Amino acid sequence: MKIAKTLGLLGIAVAGISLVACKAGGDNQGLEYAPQMYHSVAYEPLTQIKDETRGEWLSTREDGKGEFFNSNIYNPHGMNMREPVEGTVPRNKEGYLPYRYKAFEIDIASANVKNPIKLDDEVLVEGQRLFGLYCTPCHGQGGEGDGPVGNIIGGVANLKGGAYVGLSEGHIFHVITKGKGRMGAHGSQITPENRWKIVHYVKQKLQGGQNADNAVVAEAGQESLVETPAN
Ligand code: HEC
């Protein structure tokens, strides 16, 4: 009887202690099972442990700091994430500025946006491949609006016909990026570079080069790209 009672009390005490030990909050992460599973090696923008000794008992780090220390030693206050410098404009890795024209601004885009990709045979081959992937289901192999999906939905533009032949390259780029009427926007599926390659292909191979941009072919230097909203 006595033994059972003692064991019972001991049980309650152990349970109590473990509950207290588990209490987490604020800077105290409580007791963790397999702690290395919780603490990211990479910087985490939303959590920050600035105490260099935290997790020393577990540490295998080369810099000798505690296992859980995860602040950026180069930033003020050890910040893991910094605000961009005021006036910073994001560019993609090719140096393009974001494409800011709205879907309805098609006429402005049509007049101002120029193809920054240099026209050559390789670009045309790649453009043809991409056109085959993204455009032929509706526009058909020859761009005449007779792809298998085009036959069902109807009303797909014949890129070789009538006024379409004279569309500016900026216009075609804008339509691919933002969509038009019953054609959906493809901006999120196709990178700007690839959209421009498709534009070259459409203009040169399907529309015989009418109203093409290649007179203003840009070397891929920054100066020309400054003018090129393309994302
Ligand atoms: C889901 C079917 C579909 C796909 C895929 C599609 N289009 Fe279209 N496209 C259309 C339809 C429908 C129209 C007619 C839009 C309207 O005016 O209502 C059109 C119109 C156009 C026009 C004429 C725009 C104008 O000003 O009238 C161009 C240029 C064009 N598409 C290029 C492309 C290119 C390049 C691709 C591939 C990246 C593509 N389309 C993919 C359905 C499609």
From TrEMBL:
Residues 1-23 form the signal peptide. The keyword Transcription does not apply. InterPro entries: Cyt_c-like_dom, Cyt_c-like_dom_sf. Coiled coil: none annotated. GO terms for molecular function: electron transfer activity; heme binding; metal ion binding. It comes from the Bacteria. SUPFAM superfamilies: Cytochrome c. This is Mono/diheme cytochrome c family protein. Keywords: Heme, Iron, Metal-binding, Signal. Residues 122-206 form the Cytochrome c domain. The keyword DNA damage does not apply.
